[in-house]
Amino acid sequence: LVFFLSLSEDKVWTTVYHDLQMQTSVGGNSLEKLSVLQLNYSATMDQISAITSSAEYCEQFISYSCKMSRLLNTPEGNPYTWWVGKANEKHYYWGGSGPGIQKCACGIERNCTDPKYYCNCDADYKQWRKDTGMLTYKEHLPVSQVVVGDVDRPGSEAKISVGPVRCQGDRNYWNAASFVTSSSYLHFSTFQGETSADISFYFKTSASDGVFLENLGNTDFIKLELKSATEVSFSFDVGNGPVEIVVRSPNQLNDDQWHRVNAERNVKQASLQVDQLPLEVRKAPTEGHTRLELYSQLYVGAAGGQRGFLGCIRSLRMNGVTLDLEERAKVTPGVKPGCSGHCTSYGMYCANGGKCVEKYNGYSCDCSKTAYDGPFCIKDVGAFFEEGMWLRYNFHSPGTSMKDLVSRTLLSSTDPEITASDLNLNKEELSFSFSTTKSPCVLLYISSYTQDFLAVLVKPSGNLQIRYSLGGTKEPYNIDVDHRNMANGQPHTVNITRNGRDIVLQLDHYPPTSYSLPTASDIQFNSPKALFLGKVIEIGKIDQDIYKYNTPGFTGCLSRVQFNQIAPLKAALRPTNASSQVHIQGELVESNCGASPLTIPPMSAATDPWHLDSASADFPYNGQAIGDGVNRNSAIIGGVIAVVIFTILCTLVFLIRYMFRHKGTYHTNEAKGAESAESADAAIMNNDPNFTETIDESKKEWLI
């Protein structure tokens, strides 16, 4: 049993080797119909089973080199060769494939030497061929036997290679429970640690003290506790009197960060370590008792009226066995399964439906169920489509039933209203981004095994159209978005949500708009078949308008395409479990499609100074800086202010000069006709026809 660190991947792999040589030859005019190759491992099957069961991921390489020796006898024959895994079960799939799929890796990737077969070796060539790949379904590992057939013909030869079993990760690493009151506890069966005890766990808390765990006997006991904000204690009594080991930390341990505790005891000594602090060791007495005799249940948390631990404990292992804290916490008051860790504070940064995953020293975002990529699931996954290029995503992949299809891909696993037995969709969510300068075209099309379909089109005018056909009506239900030209080369985002008869459409950042299917229309999307991007290549009858828009095809960029739980572009550009369901015509070149759309909520034509007819518009008004960076409205207002300031300055200069010129004189500008005027202002206005409103705003007398 070998452990090693793969620095290139920064992961620790547990590797178990066997005695079968690589490239073991089989056949060559063998008289035996079947050749059985036995693999003997460096660990027992129970030990390997424990490793694979607790690991997050396992793999085992397997290879079949052949010359006139068929492998799985695809497409429809009985396999000539198979392998035996855990519990002596036979398996008829090969490396790079999966359970229930009688194919090799080339059959999944559709690149076999002869496309009529699903394995290279099944073509029965006289030249050497090879089928290789990783077996990754860990519940079937390890490979214990390989049974090889079709090597009894003249000229038939085969060579078998099976790699070691490699596993990484620990499924129990995040098995955790949160203790929410000081009297909360979990109980387990009595700890069997008579002569040796090895206890390890992680904790985090903001409390200054509390008991981690305790198990009692008549006089014997074993106990781990947080004695203070800087002290962890390991105490026990095997009949010679209580012994206590304390580790003191220079830093606070109640900082709500993860800390590791490892306590060991055997007949010679006991030790305690916290994080990377120095190991504290206490030798056992030379005489006296050595066996730890316990009879009570093991308590994790509060016990015997003591103040229990407040916070979170995870990955609790006692003598190599991980205690299932989460499962016990589900049925225990005052204790909650799991931990609220970094994801509580930072989970919001996992965008676009990404799932926050707790890590020992931080967190990560799982983007596998989204159409995005990157550390925070915000990086667009998109591609540029040349004319005539298309992508098809088959909802129903070989080896999966329609029931599996619905439950695993088309339907959200969190949706309680839809069950896998429906095989029909009462609701769906579709979102994507696109940019193009050519119209008409088909952006996206979802076909079915019936006449139902959903299409998103760009009409010859450049306007967007969503077309639903769910049955019950003679013509499809169309949603036309006529107020904008979508074929303007700018990125646009489309979000469509349907729940029964109700449809909500959101285009770019404009407010959502609601629509409703006709009362005569069915509300179920029956038996979805495939999703097409760029062009529709489907057998059977196709809507006439869609057929017209289908030539020559979409030219431009598509990104972040997601239909319910399916991200077809991401499946094509990133290796995922769904990659085998994607077929591409042409070369798919990855692109971010110009990032997000720049539109803002629309203004009316009367108030929009940049309003343009959609036919002549070659850029959208986005409220951003234009030209040399000065907004036109701002420029007009600034000009008016500048003129006013200039006028005021000129007036002040004139007044100052006038005041100094007549210094010491009481002077009034009394106009002629003042006697008959109602006021002095009226006299001035009557006398001076060129009088401006400025004087009316600043009528004054000066006394110098």
TrEMBL record:
<dbReference type="InterPro" id="IPR013320">
    <property type="entry name" value="ConA-like_dom_sf"/>
</dbReference>
<feature type="domain" description="Laminin G">
    <location>
        <begin position="175"/>
        <end position="339"/>
    </location>
</feature>
<comment type="similarity">
    <text>Belongs to the neurexin family.</text>
</comment>
<dbReference type="GO" id="GO:0016020">
    <property type="term" value="C:membrane"/>
</dbReference>
<keyword id="KW-0732">Signal</keyword>
<keyword id="KW-0472">Membrane</keyword>
<dbReference type="InterPro" id="IPR003585">
    <property type="entry name" value="Neurexin-like"/>
</dbReference>
<dbReference type="InterPro" id="IPR050372">
    <property type="entry name" value="Neurexin-related_CASP"/>
</dbReference>
<keyword id="KW-0677">Repeat</keyword>
<keyword id="KW-0245">EGF-like domain</keyword>
<feature type="domain" description="Laminin G">
    <location>
        <begin position="407"/>
        <end position="593"/>
    </location>
</feature>
<keyword id="KW-0812">Transmembrane</keyword>
<keyword id="KW-1133">Transmembrane helix</keyword>
<feature type="transmembrane region" description="Helical">
    <location>
        <begin position="635"/>
        <end position="656"/>
    </location>
</feature>
<feature type="domain" description="EGF-like">
    <location>
        <begin position="340"/>
        <end position="378"/>
    </location>
</feature>
<dbReference type="InterPro" id="IPR001791">
    <property type="entry name" value="Laminin_G"/>
</dbReference>
<keyword id="KW-1015">Disulfide bond</keyword>
<protein>
    <submittedName>
        <fullName>CNTP2 protein</fullName>
    </submittedName>
</protein>
<dbReference type="InterPro" id="IPR000742">
    <property type="entry name" value="EGF"/>
</dbReference>
<feature type="disulfide bond">
    <location>
        <begin position="312"/>
        <end position="339"/>
    </location>
</feature>
<dbReference type="GO" id="GO:0007155">
    <property type="term" value="P:cell adhesion"/>
</dbReference>
<keyword id="KW-0130">Cell adhesion</keyword>
<dbReference type="Pfam" id="PF02210">
    <property type="entry name" value="Laminin_G_2"/>
</dbReference>
